[in-house]
Structure prediction request, 258 residues.
Amino acid sequence: MKTPPSAALPDNCGLETTSESLARVRECLAAAQDVLVISGAGVSAESKIPTFRDADGLWQDFDPEEHATREAFLRDPVKVWKWYDARRINLAQARPNPAHRALAAMAVSDRRVFIVTQNVDDLHEQAGSREVVHIHGLLWRLRCERDGPALENREAPLSEMPPLCMCGEVMRLDIVWFGENLPRQPVERIRPYFWEGRIDLCLVIGTEASFGYIWQWAVHAREQGALLVDVNPRDRGLGSMADVRLRGKAGELIPRLI
Ligand code: OAD
Prediction:
C-alpha cells in the first residue's frame, strides 16, 4: 500500500448523472447474473463514517504516517489505539444507508453480487449482503502483534488501553496499514471469482481508487466484458476509464438502479 495522495479537486467537475446513464446501468443490472462491487469509504459516508481524502476526510486532520502504519503503532500503541477506539465508537452507532441496503437487495436468486470493500466497517453485512470481502480488514477484529489468529472484539470503548494478548504482547487491529501487504485470505477469495467466468457489471462506488489493485480488478472485470460504472459525487477514482460515470451520492443513486 502506498501513502495517500492529498490532492483535492473541486466538487462535481461539471458532470451530471443523466437519466440515460441510469437507464443503461439499470438495463445491464436487470440482465446481469454476476455483479462485482468494489466499494470504498464513500459508500459509508451517508452513514456518518468519515471518508479519508475528501475535504472533511480523516487525512485532513490526521497524518496517516502517525496513525495508520505499523511503525507508528509500535512507537506509540496507545496513541494509535485511541484514534481507532474513537472510530470504533462511531462505527458502533452507525447503521447501513440506502446504498448498502440496495446492494444487498440486488442479490436475488439468479444473480450473484460479490462485494470487495476497502472499508473496515461491517455495514454491507449489516444491510444483508452475504458475499463481502474486506481487503483492508475489519475494525471489529484484533490479533496479537506477535502471532496468532484474529479474534472478534466489539468492545467500544475498549476497557483496556492498549488491549493485551494473554501472552502479554499488545493486540493490534486486524487491518491493513500503509506499507503492509494485502492479507492472503481475502485475496484468495477474490481470485477464483475472476477465474470462474464472466462478470456482467462492475460497480465501483465511493472510492478514489488510490491503490493499483483496485484499478487492476476493475480493468480485469471490464476486459471480461463487464460494464464498468463509477459512482461518486466527484470526478475522481476511475474517472475516464469507466463506461458510465454516475455523479452523485451512493445513497441516492444505488437505490435508483433496482
Ligand atoms: P477516500 O476517502 O480516498 O475516497 C472516498 C471517495 O468517496 C471520494 O472519491 C469521494 O468523492 C467519494 N464520496 C464521498 N461521499 C460519497 C457518497 N455519499 N457517495 C459516493 N461517493 C462518495 O476513500 P477510499 O478510496 O475508500 O486505508 O480509500 C481507500 C483506502 O485509503 C482506505 O481503505 C484507507 C485509506 O487510506 C487505510 O486506512 C490503510
User: Anything to note?
Assistant: DSSP finds eleven helices and nine strands in the chain. The beta strands are 34-39, 112-117, 132-134, 137-144, 151-152, 171-175, 201-205, 227-231, 244-246. Residues 4, 40-42, 45-46, 51-54, 57, 68, 118, 136, 176-178, 206-208, 210, 231-234, 236-237, 249-251 surround 2'-O-acetyl adenosine-5-diphosphoribose (CB under 6 Å).
